[in-house]
Amino acid sequence: MCLAIPARIVELEGDKAVVDAMGNRWKAKTTLLPQAKLGDLVLIHAGFAISLVDEEEAKETWRLIAEINEFQNTPNKISG
Amino acid sequence: MLDRIQKAQNLCGAACKQLGRQINIMEVCGTHTVSIFRNGIRSTLPKELKLLSGPGCPVCVTDQGYIDIVLQLADRDDCLIATYGDMIRVPGKNSSLERKQAKTNIKVILSSEDALQLAKDNPEKTVVFVAVGFETTAPATAVVVKEAAEQAVDNFCILSGHKLVVPAMRALLSAKNDKIDAFLCPGHVSVIIGYGAFAEIVEDFGRPCVVAGFEPLQIMEGLGEICRQLAAGKAELKSIYDAVVTEKGNTAAQEIIAECFEAADGYWRGLGKIEKSTLKLKDKYSRFDALTRFNMSETPSEEKTGCRCGEVLCGLIEPPECGLFGQNCTPQEPIGPCMVSSEGACAAWFKYGGISISG
Predict the structure, then answer these.
(1) Is residue A41 domain-resident?
(2) Residues with Cβ < 8 Å from A71, sequence gap 6 or more?
(3) Measured between beta carbons, which residues in chain B are less than 8 angstroms from residue A61?
(4) Is B211 helix (H, G, I), strand (E, B) or coil?
(5) Lowest mean pLDDT among A29-38, B175-184, B337-346
(6) Has residue A49 been placed in a domain?
(7) Beta bridge pairs of residue B10
(8) Which chain A residue shows the shortest CA-CA distance from B144?
(9) Quick one: pLDDT band at residue B358, thresholds 50, 70, 90?
(10) Quick check: B191 and A43 CB within 8 A?
């Protein structure tokens, strides 16, 4: 829940944005990051951009999220 | 990169040797817990270095009394409950939102804006937004409360379960908990509050505080930096998560939190009452507070017999030491929230505990 996802702003009107990451597009707001511009990579948490982020950090985080998702979707096994 | 990991490991080893005793580092953030397990970090650390899972899972620390209020409101035909997904399995005294989902008035949402839109789309119902999370999530709630006021969306209200990380850390240390030597501080909370927020932990309690991101290299280097300090007998504030964390944090987010909320005493599961540790809507927004609107108050509930989530959250025991772990309490049939949430220490241990053998 505390994890924020990097995404690129692909549409922006006022503080209403559409962001793109990991094969998805979704609505987000830039109310908390007024300096954000179209094309910027930002961290999105619960539908809001909270920070700018650079390309390298974004890629690394996407990789990590994919791993964590895969990790958490592995079937439960009784610990030995 | 391997040499950086090696360097971090060497620092950890050197600290253990220097201090000649067990070192306990609390990782506050639930996502750190999962990342540490996923990357098998525990097994690469010296056996004298213990990582304790702290109260950094907002779902886990939500008191049962809060859940019971949500469940009571869910029973009302005039209410729609809007909640983030990870709350729906948390057990109250008798039930959970998931079990009530046969009723159609519970909606899982991804953003606070979705909750506000739900209210606009359903003017004949009152939408109750289950607003849970730390400082990372609180600004999102504040924005929609402000919007609801500006746009006169009067059928919208929130049940604030927002919690503050630093007061919880203080409470853990003030309880004369000598186990914690240092903190690995949460990454995305720090984006909002700034790493400077942890300065008071360093100054008042003399514990190193290092903010790190979630990648394994970040975690290892964060632990390495903590150990470097411990070996030198120092306690310093540091952030190695330069990509997104600054000393001051996101001031726009802090301002909107301050406009809508004030710090209040609140109940944390497992930790009891902590002063000024939760966020309550200010008087000017009190009509958007579900407790005010429905004339209810939150009372803490007794823990289920045998559930030791509280001790797990404080880092006093590890999940397998709880008698219910893996027996009566499993991810399929959770008793305490530490097993319910995907970021809970117990859920993580259950899935991967077999791998966490040290050495």
Answers:
(1) yes
(2) B34, B37, B38
(3) 213-215
(4) strand
(5) B337-346
(6) yes
(7) none
(8) A31
(9) very low
(10) yes
Could you tell me which chain B residue has the CA closest to the CA of A52? B244
Tokens of B64: 């049962």
On the question of pLDDT at B303 being above 70, the answer is: no
The reply to whether residue A1 touches residue B351, judged by beta carbons under 8 angstroms, is no
Establish if A32 belongs to a structural domain.
yes
Q: Does A18 touch chain B (CB under 8 A)?
A: no
Q: Tell me which residue range forms the domain holding A52.
A: 5-72
Which residue's entry shows tokens 């090696």?
B6
d(CA A8, CA A41): 4
What does the pLDDT read at residue B354? 58
Q: How many domains does chain A have?
A: 1
In a domain, A79, yes or no: no
Contacts of B314 (CB under 8 A, 6+ apart): B54, B55, B172, B175, B177, B270, B271
- Taking 60 as the threshold, does the pLDDT of residue B357 lie above it? no
Domains and CATH numbers, chain B: 1-303 (3.40.50.11740), 309-354 (no CATH)
CB-side neighbour CA atoms (13 Å) of A49: 29
CB contact under 8 A, B191 and A34: no
DSSP assignment letter at A75: P
Supply angle C-alpha B181, B186, B190, rounded to 5: 120
Q: Does B233 touch chain A (CB under 8 A)?
A: no
User: Which residues 45-104 of B have a C-beta within 8 angstroms of A?
Assistant: 56-59, 84, 86
Token duo for residue B311: 């001790």
Q: What is the DSSP letter of B38?
A: H
Give me the percent of chain B exceeding a pLDDT of 90. 59
Give the pLDDT of residue B64: 82
- Please report, for the domain that includes residue A56, its CATH number: 2.30.30.140
What are the Cα distances from residue B239, in Å, to B55, B57, B216, B273?
20, 21, 15, 30
Contact residues for B297 (Cβ-Cβ < 8 A; gap 6+):
B291
A75 touches chain B (CB under 8 A): no
Alpha-carbon distances, residue B262 vs A17, B69, B232, B257, B277 (angstroms): 29, 21, 39, 8, 10
Q: Nearest residue on chain A to B83, judged by CA atoms?
A: A46
